[in-house]
């Protein structure tokens, strides 16, 4: 797929300086630009590369004025970084613009779907499923019975969505993710064995949620596991039954959240964080990577460590942790002098 500088400038509302018919068909870093590639310059540290890049078209800020001869065609915009991001989003939309039902695939009884559905080969859609408009479901995906899917959703290859799950508009679920598997519920017996507690709830993903690859979101024992609007989940995250995650919270990879924990709005949770069950984490909380959360956290707190405590206190204490061998040695010397 090829685009001219003029076409790109039209998308970005930019001004072409150079050849408006310059064609591009791929993206590149400015230092790795080749003929036919599109790149951008926003960081002044990379400005020297604009004089040597072979990229056919370069997006720059309106304020940029070359100090030497350049061969690349420029597109001037208000903010080159934001413009390039917008272009990536547009490119992704064009790339994902598929429609039609490929075979073999299975649509069970009473399935309804809107316009521009794409259903890849080897997909299975269960009974009574409702699918909105412009939904893209890539090959080898399983959709269980009674699932509801809103408009403009994308499920990449190999997604598994169990029965009764409800998914809002504009959601993206990446490959290998499982939504709605059983929560980890077992009742112990005196003889050391366990019996399974049926998990009869569901999972709700509200609008504008994105879930990374190989993440697991368990269905509730009763009621719902809820992922609120705008939540962004990284790859390889475990969310247990009856967890609720507030609007616009972002969580990095390898985090595990135990059952019935409630997380507030606009939180940022680093990678490899472990969170126990049945606690509440407030709004606007920041949890640093590899922290262990064993108790509730109030609004606006920043924590780190295992068990986690105030980030400022942790940073001060860490200086002492690193110097602990020397501190012990100094104390031993003082003891000898006192004796």
Automatic annotation (TrEMBL):
Pfam families xrefs: Hexapep, LpxD
EC number in record: 2.3.1.191
Annotated active site: 241
InterPro entries the record matches: Hexapep, LpxD, Trimer_LpxA-like_sf, UDP_GlcNAc_AcTrfase_non-rep
Swiss-Prot/TrEMBL catalytic activity: a UDP-3-O-[(3R)-3-hydroxyacyl]-alpha-D-glucosamine + a (3R)-hydroxyacyl-[ACP] = a UDP-2-N,3-O-bis[(3R)-3-hydroxyacyl]-alpha-D-glucosamine + holo-[ACP] + H(+)
Boundaries of every UDP-3-O-[3-hydroxymyristoyl] glucosamine N-acyltransferase non-repeat region domain copy: 22-89
Keywords tagged on the record: Acyltransferase, Lipid A biosynthesis, Lipid biosynthesis, Lipid metabolism, Repeat, Transferase
Record pathway: Bacterial outer membrane biogenesis; LPS lipid A biosynthesis
NCBIfam families in UniProt: lipid_A_lpxD, PRK00892.1
Subunit structure of this chain's protein: Homotrimer.
Protein name: UDP-3-O-acylglucosamine N-acyltransferase
Species whose genome carries this gene: Flavobacterium chungnamense
């Amino acid at each position: 797929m090829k685009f001219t500088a003029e076409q790109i400038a039209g998308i970005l509302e930019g001004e072409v300086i150079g050849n408006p018919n310059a064609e591009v068909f791929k993206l590149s870093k400015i230092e790795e630009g080749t003929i036919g590639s599109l790149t951008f310059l926003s960081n002044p540290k990379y400005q020297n590369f604009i004089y040597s890049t072979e990229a056919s078209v370069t997006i720059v800020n309106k304020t940029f004025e070359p100090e030497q001869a350049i061969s690349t065609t420029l597109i001037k915009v208000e903010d080159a970084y934001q413009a390039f991001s917008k272009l990536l989003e547009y490119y992704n939309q064009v790339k994902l613009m598929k429609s039609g039902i490929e075979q073999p695939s299975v649509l069970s009884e009473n399935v309804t779907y809107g316009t521009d559905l794409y259903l890849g080969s080897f997909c299975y859609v269960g009974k009574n499923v409702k699918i909105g408009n412009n939904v893209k479901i890539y090959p080898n995906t399983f959709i269980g019975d009674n699932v509801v899917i809103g408009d403009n959703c994308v499920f990449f290859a190999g997604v598994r969505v169990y029965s009764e799950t409800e998914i809002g508009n504009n959601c993206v679920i990446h490959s290998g993710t499982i939504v709605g598997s059983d929560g980890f519920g077992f009742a112990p017996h005196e003889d050391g064995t366990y019996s399974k507690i049926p998990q009869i709830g569901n999972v709700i993903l509200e609008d504008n949620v994105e879930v990374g690859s190989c993440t697991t979101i368990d269905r509730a024992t009763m009621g719902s596991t809820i992922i609120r609007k705008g939540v962004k989940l990284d790859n390889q995250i475990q969310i247990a039954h009856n967890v609720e995650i507030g609007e616009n919270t972002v969580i990095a990879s390898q985090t595990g959240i135990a059952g019935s924990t409630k997380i507030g709005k606009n939180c940022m949770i680093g990678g490899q964080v472990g969170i126990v069950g049945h606690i509440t984490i407030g709004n606007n909380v920041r949890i640093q990577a590899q922290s262990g959360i064993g108790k509730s956290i109030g609004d606006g707190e920043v924590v780190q460590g295992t068990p986690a405590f105030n980030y400022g206190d942790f940073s001060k204490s860490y200086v002492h942790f690193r110097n602990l061998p020397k501190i012990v040695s100094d104390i031993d010397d003082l003891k000898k002098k006192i004796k």
